[in-house]
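Appendix B, record 7
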Amino acid sequence: MLRLYHWPLDPAGRMVRLVLSEKGEPFEAVPSRPWAPELEIASIAPGAVAPAVVSTHGSARFAASGTRAICEHLEEVRPVPSLLPDDLSERAEARRLWTWVEAGMEEVTDTLLSERVLQWTRRDRQPDSEKLRRGAHALRGRLTFLNALAETRGYLAGRQLSLADFSAAAHLSAYDYFGDVQWDAVPDLKAWYMRIKSRPSFRPLLADRLEAARPVSHYAELDF
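Structure tokens (predicted):
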């Protein structure tokens, strides 16, 4: 069995959890706070951070850190179901969009989501309104792009569900915990998200709760 170190609201950790569940790979989830990571993560490799997985089965140790290393490994060892399209052009597009989501959403995570989390962890400070504005502005631009894809394609990369979909859904679900996704402005993306959100692999994410910070009312609703 794999031991997964993650923080419940971290988009990268959420993506790995989704992929593990889709692959039917059992795992032990070990919460690891970004500001106080578990010591075993440091033993994986220099500079390793969560999400990280460590094999707890057998004598041969396997360990990996980061969404790309973990998810590409899972595609190799558990090829069914495949989360990269059979069509080579769509496969390349899935990888491109996966990269785009992680790079494009970094600013949103570092500003909007981080500020929301700081509000939760440090109740004695006022929120940084400039960071919130920058993050909200960045998110609107990303949502517009994703909505255009959802409007013309069955899934983000084409006809087949892929790692690009899970990366985008993982990020949006984290932002949606605090109600920062304006779904009414992106109806096609909302319809796509409801389909992804209805998958059994999503249920554990929708059950996540931060102490003293409840999610918005529609967070766990499949039809909202």
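Remarks on this record: The longest strand covers residues 2-6. The first helix runs from residue 11 to 23.
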